[in-house]
# Entry
Amino acid sequence: MFWIVMFLAQATAVPSQTERGEALFFDAQQGCGSCHALKGKGTAVGPDLTGLGRLGPQAIAMAARSTVTQYVQVAKLKSGESFPAMTGKKDEKAVVLFDLSKNPPEKKEVAPADIASMGNNDVWKHPPVVNKISNEKLADIVAYIKYAATGSKKAVDPEDVK
Ligand code: HEC
# Structure
């Protein structure tokens, strides 16, 4: 009996890859969850990653390591203020802009008339690129994304996310 209890205690003490990935994903400092939603958790500033979970580990890793941005733009306001932004909800009265120069990104609501221009992003880089995320960490995170999106507990080899 004693040995069974010891064995169970040890087995639960070592976090699985998906558990490590979840902790990294929601880490307050450089976590993905401060900008991405995944299965209803996290903050939807950047793209929701749930749909990406169906892709292979290499494709997810490549998207996370991409140095090219598709959605981020540089917002210039008539007040003179300028910042890299993800556009959120908008209607005639207000546009939600997430200021990516802040960590976590700051939500701003501006009147469409106060925006001078929205231009190509040449200032903001994706945090996993800036932080040069390691293959080991990214493999854990990719395993968690796949698990959260599809329920798959298949291990992700750091070699596969290079
Ligand atoms: C400061 C906010 C922020 C953080 C932190 C962040 N991301 Fe992102 N991420 C973005 C934004 C914004 C985009 C969209 C960039 C673009 O294409 O314009 C993006 C894009 C992506 C994409 C591509 C999605 C697609 O549909 O094309 C993936 C995958 C991704 N991030 C994964 C991650 C992972 C994994 C982490 C944590 C290691 C992370 N991100 C941390 C903001 C962030």
Remarks:
- The mean pLDDT is 92.
